[in-house]
UniProtKB/TrEMBL annotation:
<comment type="similarity">
    <text>Belongs to the cation transport ATPase (P-type) (TC 3.A.3) family. Type IB subfamily.</text>
</comment>
<protein>
    <recommendedName>
        <fullName>Cation-transporting P-type ATPase B</fullName>
    </recommendedName>
</protein>
Length: 297
């Protein structure tokens, strides 16, 4: 009877929009007590929009957007797509300039040569690591953007900070309910993100995650280490993520849940795929696993 019940469990999962790698996954799903949620693309839509272009004193606004947009056009990151789309629109069909020596540094930013300038686009830390400091006006602009719960992207070229771009993401309509359902199952939700603390806290508050369970500014390589720490503390951890930068954490967790709307790398690293990218299916999966295995025992 055991294999049959497990097959029923996986079949029911498919109806709920949950793809289960194999029946053996149900056992770890049942034991989970902590659910770590990636922010961008998992709790939020990840469909970002550029809301502000804030040049440094003496920097041309159109040039700032064009150089940043050209560079971001080569990146798949949700922030990059928002910046590139707005920049392309501002060019009125003229097209964005070509980029050479492009490099993507996951969780930090992108760099490359555009119109003969060495351009950096990313986190303040990304610029600081390359010896570029923000002048007072840009530091103030960045703080104001972050205080409003948006993500500030800093832009530099030829060794000088040139501006701040503000991008806004929206929390998925289903995320707050998903967090309530996870709590109702006795699970502790945790937010994990490479984005800054102000944005992370704003999103956590909106969906009902405790401020003490927010881990922001976490580099991609440290996301997996965060999961390892939780497991070492005796937790049985599920990780839900969508990005290339979540793949290692998904593989490290007792249970990896990938958003079906996310990248192939995440889906390959996961044990379960939430086909519709709806976080409520994470709670459904755990409930289903508990029920299916209760039937067997
Ligand atoms: P998350 O953990 O929320 O999915 P990431 O780890 O992908 O976020 O990125 C963390 C941060 O790194 C972003 O919030 C952004 O500040 C910066 N960043 C990463 N890639 C880019 C990029 N292509 N352009 C600008 N900023 C970037
Ligand atoms: Mg993500």
């Amino acid at each position: 009877a055991t294999p049959t019940a497990l097959m029923v469990g996986t079949g029911r999962g498919a109806q709920l929009g949950i793809l289960i790698r194999g029946p053996e996954v149900l056992e770890s799903t049942r034991r989970v007590d902590t659910v770590v949620l990636d922010k961008t693309g998992t709790v939020t839509t990840g469909r970002m929009a550029l809301t502000d272009v804030l040049p440094a004193a003496g920097t041309d606004r159109a040039l700032l957007l064009r150089l940043a947009g050209a560079l971001e056009d080569a990146s798949e990151h949700p922030i990059a797509r928002a910046v590139a789309a707005a920049a392309a629109e501002a060019e009125n069909g003229a097209g964005l300039p070509a980029v050479s020596d492009f490099a993507n540094v996951p969780g930090l930013g992108v760099q490359g040569t555009v119109e003969g300038r060495r351009v950096l686009v990313g986190q303040e830390k990304f610029l600081a690591d390359r010896a570029v400091e923000l002048p007072r006006d840009l530091a103030d602009a960045k703080a104001a953007v972050e205080a409003s719960g948006r993500t500030a992207v800093t832009v530099a070229w030829d060794g000088e900070a040139r501006g701040v771009l503000a991008v806004a993401d929206t929390v998925k309509a289903t995320s707050a309910e998903a967090v309530r359902r996870l709590r109702a199952l006795g699970l502790t939700p945790v937010l994990l993100t490479g984005d800054n603390h102000a944005v992370a806290r704003a999103v956590a508050a909106e969906v009902g995650i405790d401020a003490a369970d927010v881990h922001a500014g976490v580099r991609p390589e440290d996301k997996a280490a965060m999961i390892t720490r939780l497991r070492a503390a005796g937790r049985t951890v599920a990780m839900v993520g969508d990005g290339v930068n979540d793949a290692a954490a998904l593989a490290t967790a007792d249970l990896g849940l990938a958003m079906g709307t996310g990248t192939d790398a995440a889906i390959e690293a996961g044990d379960l795929t939430l086909v519709r990218g709806d976080l409520r299916a994470a709670a459904d999966a755990i409930r289903l696993a508990r029920r299916t295995l209760a039937t067997i025992k």
